[in-house]
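tokens incoming
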């Protein structure tokens, strides 16, 4: 059985175990309830696997549902979603995501927002300001974006805002956070 099929079975089992009423009554508090975590992890794994298989729209829908269930985003779902929405050019949804998590200061977030604004507006005053702000948060990211530094082969155990590990880890999340095998 393929990996995405196993994740799908995990999602379906979680939905049966929790029941439909649970999904209505506990929206917004999902991660705080221990019994939801296997379901949340299975759905996240399914999204990552579907993305790798090329089922872009379906993968994005799974991440959006995870954020609906858990808007506090304890899983860091928004980091994959911001990259995927940017890559697929779903600019309206990307704008909503930036508005929802407007105070996020992670390098991947700030640089993607600057690139997105540049894509929409060109070298506007706002786009240039966002690039400066992103650079202030982490001066090391441009080296990875421009290819003068290689992404690490493995994710670091810990990252911090503004440091080298964040610069390599966040820009590499699409590559490094994928399931190893299908």
């Amino acid at each position: 059985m393929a990996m995405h099929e196993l994740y799908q079975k995990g999602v379906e089992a979680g939905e049966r175990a929790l029941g439909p009423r649970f999904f209505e009554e506990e929206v917004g508090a999902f991660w705080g309830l221990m019994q939801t975590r296997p379901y949340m992890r299975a759905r996240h794994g399914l999204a990552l696997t579907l993305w790798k298989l090329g089922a872009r729209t379906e993968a994005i829908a799974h991440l959006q549902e995870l954020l609906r269930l858990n808007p506090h985003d304890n899983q860091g779902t928004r980091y994959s979603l911001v990259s995927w929405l940017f890559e697929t050019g779903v600019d309206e949804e990307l704008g909503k995501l930036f508005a929802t998590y407007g105070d996020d200061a992670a390098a991947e977030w700030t640089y993607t927002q600057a690139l997105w604004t540049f894509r929409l507006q060109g070298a506007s005053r706002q786009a240039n300001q966002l690039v400066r702000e992103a650079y202030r948060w982490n001066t090391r990211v441009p080296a990875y974006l421009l290819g003068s530094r290689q992404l690490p082969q493995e994710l670091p155990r810990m990252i911090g805002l503004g440091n080298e590990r964040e610069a390599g880890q966040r820009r590499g999340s699409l590559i490094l956070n994928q399931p190893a095998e299908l």
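note: Residues 46 and 67 are 15 Å apart (CA to CA).
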